[in-house]
Structure formats: C-alpha cells, structure tokens
Write a structure and sequence with these properties.
The structure holds two protein chains of two kinds. By secondary structure, chain A is of the alpha+beta class. Chain A has 17 helices and eleven strands. In chain A, helix 8 crosses helix 9 and helix 16 packs antiparallel against helix 17. Chain A is globular, with a radius of gyration of 22 Å. In chain B, about 70% of the residues lie in helices and about 0% in strands. Classes of the chains: A alpha+beta, B mainly alpha. At the A-B interface, helix 1, helix 3 and helix 16 of A face helix 3, helix 12, helix 13 and helix 14 of B.
Chain lengths: ~425, ~325
C-alpha cells in the first residue's frame, strides 16, 4: 500500500540518520591534488551524461585523477541528495540547482567556495548569487538560464504586427491580435496554478520592480509593484488570452508548433527543443527580451557545482571545477550541451558572441534576478503559487490574495 | 503465509492456530503425534524459517513505524536530517495544529469525498462486471476479463497520459463527443468542482478490475448444486441472484469493500500525476498533502503526525466496516 511505503520511507530516512549521526565535519585529511585519487561526481539529467565525456578528456590531461560521474535523474535528484546528506555519503562534487542551495547549506554538508580560485567578477551576478547563502558562497556557477519571450513571427505578421513586443501593453496587444486576427486558440502560455507557477510569474513580478522577499529577508509580496504584476498576470486569464487549466507535464513546444499557443516564456533549452522537435517552424519564430514594465527583468536559473564538506579530495575537486568553469571549459560545455555559460568571458568569442538569439539571452542574463537562497524557499513560493491560483481562477483580487500570502510568508521568514 | 518444505514446518503450521481452524481435514491426528517429542525443534525451525521475513519486517516496517510515531511528537525539520538528535519534543503540538490547519481539513474532506463516492461505485461496478462475465458472455470471456483487469496492472503514468487525452478540454475524446452533439466540453481537470469527480472516475476505472477478480473468484466458489436446487424450485434469475449469489458473496463483498476503502483513503497517485492537488487544492488528498509537507517542505514531524491521524482514521473505519458488515451476515 502506498501509505505504508511512504511512512516507511520517511521512517527509514530517520533511522538512517539516527544510525549515522557520526557524520558531520570530519574534513581534515585532504588528499593533495597531485596524488592518485578517484573523484566522485553527481550530475543531473542530460548534464550527467555529457559530463562523463568531459571527464574522459580531463582524465587524459590529469592521469592521476579518475573522475567517476554518476548521472542522476532530475526527478530523483533532490531525494537522493537529501538521503546522501543524511547518511553522510555525499559525492565529492555535485551539481546543484539554485533552489537547493539554501536547503543544503542549512544541512551543513557544503564546503564554502575557495574565493581565491573562483572570483565573483568572472560570472553573471545572478549566477553567483544562486550559489550564495547569507553572503557566503557554497557553489560555483556552472551554467545559467533565464526565461525570454518566444513568439511566432509568421502568425504575428498575419495579425498585422511585425515587431517584438517591448512592454506589457504591446505584449497584451499582440496576444489579443494573435487570437482575434490570426485565429490562435490562446494568446500567451503562462501557468495558471500548480507547483512552481511562480516561475512564470517572476518575469512580471521582477519587471514591475517587485520581489517576494527583499535583501533584508523581509516578506514584501504585498507591495504595490507585486499587486500590479499579479493584476497584469491575472488579466490574461480573465480576458481568455491564457488557458486556465494546464495539466502537470504540459508540453508547450507542441502547441507552439501547431499554432495554438503563439507566445510563451521559455529557457535556452527551448531553442534546441524547437529546432529538433518542430523543424517545420524554422524561421517562423523568434525570441525577445521580457517585455518591460519598469524594466525588463527575468528570473535566473541554472546550476552550480558544490564540494561536499566531508570530501577528502577537496583540492582535486577544486581543480576539476576550475577546469569546468573557466572560459575555455565553459565554451566547450556550451558546444556539447547548449547550456549557457555562467562565466561571462566565455561569451566573448565564437558562436556565443555572434548569434543574435544568444545575445538576447545574454542581455536578459545581465539583469536577471536569482531567488534568495532560503532553506524553506519551496514553502515560501508555494504561498505565492496559491495566491496566483486564486487570482487566475477568479477567486480573489490580486490585493487580497497577496495580502494573505504576505502574512503567511512573514511567518516563514521570521 | 507460504508453506515451507519439511514436515516440521507443516506441523508448525498446525500449531499456528487460526489459519488451520477451518481445515480439520488436515489431520490433527498425525501431526499431533509428531508434535510432542520435538516441540523445541519445531519452534526453532519455525523461527528459522521466519527469520528472513522477520528481519525485513523489523528493519523496513517496525523500526520506521515506531520512528515515525516518535517523530510525530517532535518538530523534526530540514536541519534534523543531518542532526536528528537536535529535534525537540513538542508533545501533541503537531496533532493539535493539524486540526486548525485549513489545508489539512480540506485534504481530509477531499479524501472522504473520494471514498464515499468511489467505494460504492467501484464495488457495484466490480460486481456487475463479475456477474456479467461469469454468466453472460461465453465466447470472449477471457478477452473481457483481461480487458477489465488491464488498467490494474498498467502503470499510473501511462494511465495518466491516456486520461489526459480523454479529458483534454480542447481536443480530447470527451470533448469530441460533446462537440458531436453541439456542446462545449467542460474543463474537467481545470475546474474545482469537476476535478475530483474526474479523479474518482479514473480511480474507479483502475480498480474495478481488482474487485471484479475477487467477485469472480467468489462467484465460482458458489457450489453449482445450490444454484441447481434453486432453479429446480423455480427460482428466476433475479431471485437466484438475490437469494443465493448475494448472501454467499457476503464475505467477498466485505473483503472487497474493506480493501477498496483502505486503498481510497490512501489515494495518492491519481492526483499526484494528474493535477498535483489542484486546482486550488480541490484534489489535494491526505496522502498527497503528507507527501508535500514531508518531502517538499521537510516538515517531517508534522507529516508523521498526519500519517498517524490517517492511520487512526483508516483503522477506525475498517473496524467499523468489519462490525457492520459482519453483523449483517448473521
């Protein structure tokens, strides 16, 4: 029975933790970087597989080091890392999403970044921020992503619009024109409710100058800016421009391809998905920076590389991460994965410097905003998700919904 | 319990009690003779054979069950994953908090809704299908049995894909049927009032197979003589069903109802894959709520308390069902 299984797994985690309290800061006996040793690395999804190739190249140049890469699926990554943290069996190096950072530093299993080797100025500010908790860096930015606006240029032409929308009004006008004049089912694809809806809301919230939690760690989600952003977001649903029910696991690429959804906010990976999955669309779509209210600010995502506090190979791990995150390593990584380099110098030559679409991402990255690294960030954003759902389903006004979220979040950020 | 090899095990089984009470044919005479001289040995053998199970049970069931109980009285949170001993005992605070937690109460209500509507539907349809397949269709019987059982053995992810297609408001199967007759299909999964009924429909579809198999087994256990006798006495189909099938199926009915109820009280997969509890928590069940509190927010203590409340609810309902339905058979 599922319940028993889940109760059991919660229990096992505790039992394991109880049995293995011995873990913690052992640190001390670090093996020198030039000694013969094996480095264990966990990376997620597609990165995990591609990283194994890079590791082979690295091993050739550094024969004393064997890099053992374990690809971990994104769906199980979080749970596996938590279990490993509880059991004291974290790998030497692990890939971590920005949202994990607060949690794992709270768990006390991450080694602070050696800021002599890795310097903040080499990376996008938001990339660096993602690895920081309370001003202390725990992760080196590996790749970054941000959301930009994808839109169908062919359908826009049919609707009589030839330029990319630059502000909120133009975006809504375009959405309306798509629906009215080009006969698309929807105007813009944004998520109405469910987990992580806030990710779609960020580009509205940040562009209006709002935040969930400010620099001082205070909840500010009921600010006039946030209310304005949520009103705008909600208007897409009340005007029937966006779908009120999007099932979990919805694939926007397909509907973008068949023209039902002519606009959505997407990450850099959507370029590959569109080129490979919807080849018939070639030349019929473009990317644009997030339309502005006060300014054009999108969310920053991506992954960092962390070293485990218990690792006995910190010196070698640092060198390996250095190899992956310097300009050369980053350009090579872009070629293999199309993940956007977190290191800004990597953008100054080759494809990255010449491709106009990529420059849109670059420009968006310069201002993109990372979420604060709070241990209970998931819980905080869950309250915002609920507020968004109330508005998109027509259950509450933006003011009321955010007032509720504000008081709930105040209780969480102390 | 699976029978193990060797005579010692066989007689150990006789010793075991309740299971053997119904089968006097097993020959108490023979085993009793053997039991006397080697009682200690048999005990040893019994324990030995049970060891693998017992070890697994202790490690994977008993320890976690107790650990969860202990945890439900603490404020076990994220930090305690690496420092479990730092968790504080807070008595019944988690439990009292539960009953003022709107979200929990909503999930409790949703779960009750699911059970109250889902269980009778599943039992009724399961019985109907079983009776039809047992009597009616002769030729394609196997085909239909497999057909009705297929959803049970299909993974929920595949099921979710199919149901999403069926319920898709713009180009799904149901939407197609609606537009055939000139209507617009409602948005089943996106509507707060329709999402739960949609979950129930899906769960019933998935579970009718299990109940059907139970009822088919029950139906086939009814001796043909009884039916023949009834027919000779001039009983019609309906009379036969009412006078023979239903009473003799009571034990099966009891079992099917109890396990379906327990299963539905635990419902997790359907909302997890289809709606993630939405829209606006309208399909948030207790199990899903527990999962999210535990693994998304790391309120392990709170989630454990929730698990125990659910456990008590399930136990209470099960005992009640056993009482009520058993009394009826007398």
């Amino acid at each position: 029975m599922p319940r028993t299984a889940r109760t059991a797994s919660v229990g096992i985690a505790v039992a394991l933790a109880l049995g293995l309290t011995a873990c913690g800061s052992s640190g001390g006996d670090d093996v020198a970087a030039d000694k013969k040793q094996t480095l264990t690395v966990w990376a997620m999804g597609a990165e995990g597989e591609k990283l194994a190739d890079v590791a082979k190249v690295y091993e050739k140049a550094n024969p004393n080091i064997t890099v053992k890469v374990t690809p971990v699926g994104w769906d199980v990554a979080h749970q596996k890392l938590v279990s490993a943290a509880a059991a004291g069996t974290m790998p030497d190096v692990a890939q971590m999403g920005g949202s994990y950072m607060g949690e794992f530093s709270e768990l006390g299993v991450l080694e602070p970044v050696d800021t002599k080797t890795f310097q903040e100025k080499d990376f996008f500010p938001s990339g660096w921020q993602q690895g920081e908790v309370d001003g202390q860096a725990y992760g080196v930015p590996w790749y970054v992503d941000t959301r930009v606006l994808y839109y169908r240029t062919d359908l826009a032409k049919q609707a009589g619009i030839t330029k990319a929308p630059t502000d909120w009004k133009e975006m809504q006008d375009l959405a309306t024109a798509y629906q009215k004049k080009a006969g698309t089912k929807w105007g813009l694809s944004i998520q109405p409710s469910g987990l992580d809806t806030v990710q779609n809301f960020y580009s509205f919230l940040y562009s209006a100058g709002g935040e969930i939690v400010n620099d001082k760690g205070e909840a500010v989600i009921d600010s006039p800016e946030a209310v304005k952003a949520l009103k705008e977001y909600g208007s897409y649903f009340s005007k029937g421009l966006s779908n009120k029910s999007v099932p979990p696991g919805y694939d926007v690429v397909k509907d973008f391809g068949n023209g039902r959804v002519p606009m959505f906010f997407g990450g850099p990976w959507h370029v590959t998905l569109l080129n490979e999955g919807q080849p018939q669309l070639k030349g019929k779509w473009a990317v644009a920076n997030v339309p502005t209210d006060k300014s054009s600010v999108s969310m920053a995502g991506g992954s960092s590389l962390v070293i485990s506090k218990d690792s006995e190979h910190k010196a070698a791990a640092t060198q390996f991460i250095k190899y992956l995150t310097d300009a050369k390593g980053q350009a090579d990584w872009y070629k293999r994965t199309k993940d956007l380099p977190a290191n800004t110098t990597a953008w100054t030559s080759g494809d990255l410097a010449n491709d106009t679409d990529l420059q849109i991402f670059k420009k968006q990255m310069d201002t993109a905003k990372a979420s604060p690294s709070l241990p209970n960030w998931t819980e905080v954003t869950d309250k915002v998700d609920q507020a968004i759902a109330k508005v998109t389903q027509g259950k509450a006004s933006a003011e009321d919904a955010l007032k509720t979220a504000q008081s709930q979040i105040e209780g969480l950020v102390k | 319990m699976s029978t193990t090899t060797g005579k010692a095990a066989e007689s150990a089984k006789v010793q075991a009690g309740p299971g053997t009470a119904k089968s006097p044919a097993a020959g108490p005479k023979g085993s009793r003779r053997r039991r006397k001289p080697s009682l200690g040995m048999q005990n040893m053998a019994g324990w030995l054979f049970s060891t693998p199970f017992l070890v697994l049970f202790l490690v994977f069931m008993a320890v976690p069950i107790i650990a969860t109980l202990v945890m439900s009285f603490t404020d076990f949170g994220l930090r305690n994953v690496t420092h479990p001993l730092d968790a504080n005992f807070i008595g019944f605070e988690n439990y009292t908090k539960l009953f003022s937690d709107e979200k929990f109460l909503k999930s409790l209500f949703n779960t009750a809704y699911f059970v109250v509507v889902g269980v009778p539907l599943t039992i009724f349809l399961g019985l109907a299908v079983a009776v039809l397949l047992n009597n009616g269709i002769d030729r394609a019987r196997t085909f239909f049995r497999v057909g009705f059982y297929a959803p049970v053995v299909t993974t929920i992810v595949a099921v979710a894909v199919v149901w999403r297609f069926v319920l898709d408001p713009s180009d799904g199967l149901v939407a197609g049927l609606f537009s055939e007759v000139g209507l617009t299909a409602p948005d089943f999964l996106g509507s707060e009032t329709l999402a739960m009924p949609s979950m129930i429909a899906m769960a019933v579809w998935r579970n009718v197979g299990t109940v059907m198999v139970l009822f088919i087994a029950g139906l086939q256990a009814i001796p043909t003589e009884v039916r023949e006798a009834a027919r000779l006495d001039g009983a019609g189909v309906w009379q036969e069903f009412k006078g023979i099938t239903v009473p003799l199926l009571r034990p099966t009915m009891l079992y099917a109802t109890v396990i379906t109820t327990i299963g539905y009280l635990n419902v997790f997969e359907e909302p997890f894959v289809m709606t993630q509890g939405g829209p606006s928590d309208s399909t948030l069940t207790v199990s899903l709520n527990m999962y999210r509190e535990g693994f998304n927010f790391f309120h392990m203590g709170y989630a454990s308390a929730m698990a125990y409340v659910l456990f008590v609810v399930i136990m209470g309902i099960t005992v009640l069902q056993l009482r009520l339905l058993k009394d009826n058979t007398k």
